[in-house]
Description:
Layout: E1 3-8, E2 12-19, E3 22-25, E4 35-36, E5 38-41, E6 49-50, H1 51-59, E7 65-68, E8 82-85, E9 88-91, H2 92-111, E10 117-122, H3 131-147, E11 152-157, H4 158-167, E12 174-181, E13 186-193, E14 207-213, H5 217-228, H6 249-254, H7 268-278, H8 282-293, H9 297-310, E15 316-320, E16 329-333, H10 334-359, E17 368-372, H11 379-388, E18 393-396, H12 402-415
Parallel strand pairs: 1-10, 10-11, 12-17, 17-18
Antiparallel strand pairs: 1-2, 2-3, 2-4, 5-6, 5-7, 8-9, 12-13, 13-14, 15-16
Amino acid sequence: MVACGLDFGTSNTTLGITTADGPALIALEGSSVTIPSAIFYTPNGAPPAVGRAAIRSYVDGNNGRLMRSLKSVLGSSLINESTAIGRGRVSFRDVISQYVDIIKKQAEATSGVEIDAVVHGRPVHFVDSDPDGDRKAEEALEAIAQEVGFKHISFQYEPIAAALDYERQVNHEEVALIADIGGGTSDFSIVRLGPERRHKADRIDDILANDGIRIGGTDFDHYLSIGTAMPLLGFGTGMKRAGLPVPGGYYHDLATWSAINRLYESGVMRQLHEVRREAQHPELIERLIHVVEEHGGHRLAIDIEAAKIALSDEPQVQVLLDWIESGLAMNVDRTVLVDKTRGLADKIAARIGDCLRDAGLGPNAIDAVFLTGGSTRLAHVHAAILGTVPDARVVDGDTFGSVGTGLTIDAATRYGVVAA
């Protein structure tokens, strides 16, 4: 039997198998072991492209439909909705199924082995404060795994998987806080780790607490977009009728990766032209109409995401938006990013506090904090996490690979697999 660890993430995906040298992530796109969770459909019915190829097809202006942040629809009402692809429609559930199927086939082609079993990563909570929605999300992901050909399917919390990866470098027993700030969720585990524990098949007694919150990198994108780009398209301006604002729903959909395609549904363009006629600043609404007409929502989201990432290292970045209107650009300061998303960082820190209370531990009982996930690179998020456990040793994991590696370790333990 060959088993894999599959980290199907909101922003990126990895898949690993056990080799003679230990757990290894498989190259899924060229030489890269990390592939964006994106799929691009063409209206002519050709097989969809995934990953960087999907994003490239979209950015190059090819006719078709890009979809990203696929995992975000799990546990939401969107999972049962469909979107227009060419002259037909496809459900979001089927989109996820096609994406996972392509990833599985690519991994098998690269590794030269048929993969029978999977340990799927999952957030601690797909949906906050909704056990029924959480259960349905896992059930949907399990059914999809069966559809694409996995014969044995199990799940592991993503922060526990990251802990298994970190444990390989631990040379003495310690209590660690694992913080995984992914694209869609922030997940935390407090785990007792050590060289004498790492070979135990059952680690339930070593898990002191698990918690999570549905806040991730895409939420930071959303708040940054709403605060910077959307006012350039008319957000926050008024209608000619006194006291009536321009409807905000269009902008919130445009700033939300998983909701962008709603703007391309029939009837929306007619509504936007009506808004333009009655708006105090029709020239701004004209920019919004141009973005929607050109199916440029994901392009704008990519620009905002790139700005957010750049602000991890630079105090200010310029975002060129001349594809919307000649000469249009905006400068974004790191202070703006912090101001617009400070509340998200505070909620992440508060949930870590809940996790510590669930474990019955004070901040000084944590020996190390292990960080993984792209949004841990944001300075104010990093500081918010460390502020909850100020005396802990800080260990930066593989930003995008720790969870997938840990899931692969778990797969080898669960299924007793022989190295591929």
